[in-house]
Amino acid sequence: MTVVDDGALPRQEGKRDALHHRDRVRRKIVEQLKQRIGEEDIIAAGPEKKLRVPVKGTRQWRFIFDRGRADGVGQGDGESGDVLGPPGGEPGRDGQAGTEPGEELYEVWLDMEDVEALLFSELELPRLRPKAGGDIVHEDVVYNDIARAGPRVDKKATLRANLLRNAKRGHARVGDVDREDLRFLSYRDLPRPRHRAVVFCVMDISASMGTDRKRMARLFFYWCVQFLRRRYEQVEIVFVGHTTEAWEMTEGEFFGRVESGGTKVSSGYELVSDIQRTRYPPNDWNAYVLHTSDGDNFTADNERTLELVEQLTAVCSLVGYLEVSASTYTPTHRLSMIFEQHAAALPGFVSASAADDRELWPALRRFFAKDDVQELVA
Amino acid sequence: MTSVYTAADLQEIDERCQEEVASLGFEVPPVVYHLMRSSEIYDIAARGLPGRYSSSRFGAIYSQQHEAYRMGRSRIYELIVNTDPVNAYLLDGNSLVAQTLVMAHCAGHAWFFASSRWFEPADRAILPRVRGAAERMAGYMAEHGRDRVEDFVDACEAIAIHQPQAQLVRRAEPAEEAYRPTPYDALFPDEVEAEKIRIADRRAERRARFPAEPEADLLAFIEHHARGLEDWQRDVISIVRSEQAYFLPQMRTKIGNEGLAVLCHQEICQRLHLPTDQYWEYEQLNASVVQPHPGQVNPYHLGIVILREVMRIATEPDEEERERWPWAGAGEPLERVRSICRDYDDEALLREFLTPKVCELARLYAFEHVQGDPRRIRVSSRESERIREILIRQHSTFEIPHIEILDADHGGHGELYLRHSADEPGLDGEYARGTLGHMATLWGRRVIVETRREDETIWYVGDPDGTTEECAAAP
What we know:
The complex is a heterodimer.
Chain A: E1 2-4, H1 13-36, H2 40-45, E2 50-54, E3 71-75, E4 83-84, E5 107-111, H3 112-120, E6 139-147, E7 152-153, H4 155-168, E8 184-191, E9 197-204, H5 211-231, E10 236-242, E11 246-249, H6 251-256, H7 265-279, E12 286-293, H8 302-315, E13 318-324, H9 335-342, E14 349-354, H10 360-367, H11 373-377
Parallel strand pairs in A: 9-10, 9-12, 12-13, 13-14
Antiparallel strand pairs in A: 2-5, 6-8, 7-8, 10-11
Chain B: H1 7-23, E1 31-36, H2 38-47, H3 56-70, E2 78-81, E3 86-91, H4 96-115, H5 126-144, H6 146-159, H7 189-208, H8 218-225, H9 231-252, H10 254-271, H11 276-289, H12 299-315, H13 319-324, H14 333-343, H15 346-353, H16 356-361, E4 364-370, E5 373-381, H17 384-397, E6 403-410, E7 415-420, H18 429-443, E8 447-453, E9 456-462, E10 468-471
Parallel strand pairs in B: 1-3, 7-8
Antiparallel strand pairs in B: 2-3, 4-5, 6-7, 8-9, 9-10
């Protein structure tokens, strides 16, 4: 029977585990969001509203009896028939399985800004290269200089100056710090190369794009635009819609307009090519083309389409094609198959398909993949 | 109020407590007390055992409980671990009166650990084992990545509770069936032949089936028979399973154990002749310990009510009680309490002593959840029969569905087929599927559980790729 006063026994793992837990939940949230980018309530949330995200995968699963029909025993006041407040209970103490599943502990409320910050950290405009002139400003402020005046004292440099000054007078020691010893941190604007970029959003708006496919295409472009605006302040976005012919549109028209008619995909690429030649010369601009379609093209048009894609890949950092296919259509005639056979090897050509909303995120990842080192070296 | 004291002061109080408790007839084994900061106490509380492996699940419990403590909403005064010697952890910052109560309380737990037969199988050297396991686990995390190991631990923990609860009862090996000759065999050669064939068939069938008998120890079965597990994974399964086993006797005896600890601290503190102001503080603390919680049962309170009733029956029984218990009125109330605590688990305690009078003294009621608002409850009855029915069910099954492995090679594809006992209410579908998803990652193939909803047999299926489904026909 002893009393020992030892702080040393168990280590301070609790706090560390708590941090691990936070980190783990964060990652689960990101996974969750990726699955849900197709859901209207995220987009409808807008900048003001908050979004409820129950975090799956952190719940403690176990076999329990059917909920809702459970009964129990309590203590205290109350006559038969009285309704009482929430039954209390601490979750999972003593390693016991409770009788009720714990309330949804892991449920977070995020605003749009959080959602985007969490999601977009994984995306990047690929092969973004410095271009001659332009507007994209990347200015990093770095405290890497020392000055004789400034807002923040650099203690180490000050002491070194003091030591040096004393040493010059024959006493190598620190002391009698004088005003002239004071050194301050100073910053520099690091001029970074300018990266001008234009992104062409091209959407098939013909009749064959049924309501659901149009919705998916718009959803895809919605996230593209959100991502580009959040990450790159001055990137330019050009909206193009096409049926058998193509128009440059305003953002409002692009997301709102309903068209009908046949499909000539080449018309869209033709217009992109024209706009790019006249307004965004490749020497000054990184160019990106993103096109969504249901893959249903006028067969005679395929050859011309391929020609244009080939031309575009020569001057663009990315030509991305997303096929949204909510129905089963003879796959051999699809544009994706044509591209697969004839365009897959073109540098900067990326194709993806999405059968449902959940496949939109993987598609975004394909288009906006972070450059890996090898690619940069090549 | 915090008084300033040293370890030596506590030592002195402990010695006085030990004297008093010994004079009451309790032989208490040695207890080592550790003074700890709140962050350390809450760390142990989150893990359940000091030094247990690192896991973000413990981190979640830790931050939640420690936050509640810092906001003044909860306070863990003490934690106690069943080891030899018993280790108890005191919150540094408790007042001297609180430490006195806590040490008197721990004396009760220490006696219970040493005396209750439900703790006989307990490993009293568990702490070094737990620390060793934590080190191995850290090694696995370094080698295979924290997430991978944690996901695997999560999967194990989902079914860790499914191991035989009554560890004292060893299951008898069922005897092989054999034909027993009778003197009349010669009269019925055809019937005898048919019977022999039938028995041989049954034996062959049993040998072909694996496991031969339904297996309720889910993790142990997976540890030994799952294909494709790496060594570290088998080790993790065994760590999770054996550490869970530590908590099983505690679950079984919660009411008796806490009741006895409260009885000890009450009896000891009465005998310490505390000065008036300290006694007042003690009374307040004691009241908060045994305070009933709405919507649940406070085991400290129900436990002390039952044990005090036992003591009353031993000394002042009424006629009915005299007939029911041969020892009623025989005196020696504490000896009676000790004898009950040695032998009874909570189920037995409740079956015998959850009388209408106890229900009334503890102010128990039965409740149902309000439809559509699971967080609110409706008092359904104050009848002791109804209360007994629910409480005894809770303390015999711990609300853990009884699930057994029937076939480890279901459909000839190595799938695991489980059956949930048809006598019980059905399984919650969402949770069953979540759990099966975990089990399938452990087993490496599909895992199926057969259960009932209303009067229909249904199946839930988990696939190693993470998908789960509900089937109306046998999969």
